[in-house]
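hey
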């Protein structure tokens, strides 16, 4: 872009506003094949707006997060957690490991190992996507997103 200053001098400035995350660039290319041109432009514009609020940072996952928010905004999607959901943990793996470790009597005399405790297993929360106005292009977009290599 060219910038003209108040004193009449003209400067050329170049800004790279293309995402560096290959997942985002591939998803945008695939979705551009499915959406109408104006809707694809709206998606790209919304992505750039959201990403610019993060100063075009390229931290891991940040670009994809902003792309996801732009896609949700374009299709007016809402993300809701499941209610009455039992927390899903990886405790079965930890319990199996614990049973194996405690069944071996060779570790019973080791004071350091006796004081060790298993970590608190992480929990995950599942969400569902909800919208009141179903866009007819939503299905092809989701299909395109999940089918590219």
């Amino acid at each position: 872009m060219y910038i003209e200053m108040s004193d009449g001098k003209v400067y050329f400035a170049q800004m790279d506003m293309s995402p560096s995350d290959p997942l985002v660039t591939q998803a945008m290319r695939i979705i551009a094949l499915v959406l109408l041109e104006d809707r694809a432009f709206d998606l790209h514009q919304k992505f750039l707006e959201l990403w610019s609020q993060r100063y075009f940072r390229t931290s891991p996952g940040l670009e994809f997060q902003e792309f996801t928010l732009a896609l949700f905004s374009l299709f007016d999607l809402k993300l809701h957690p499941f209610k009455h959901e039992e927390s899903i943990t990886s405790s079965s793996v930890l319990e199996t490991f614990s049973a194996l470790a405690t069944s071996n009597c060779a570790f019973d005399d080791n004071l350091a190992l006796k004081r060790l405790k298993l970590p608190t297993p992480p929990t995950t929360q599942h969400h569902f996507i909800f919208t009141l106005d179903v866009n007819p292009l939503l299905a092809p977009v989701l299909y395109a997103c999940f089918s590219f290599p």
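The chain is about 45% helix and 10% strand. Residues 2-77+135-147 form one domain.
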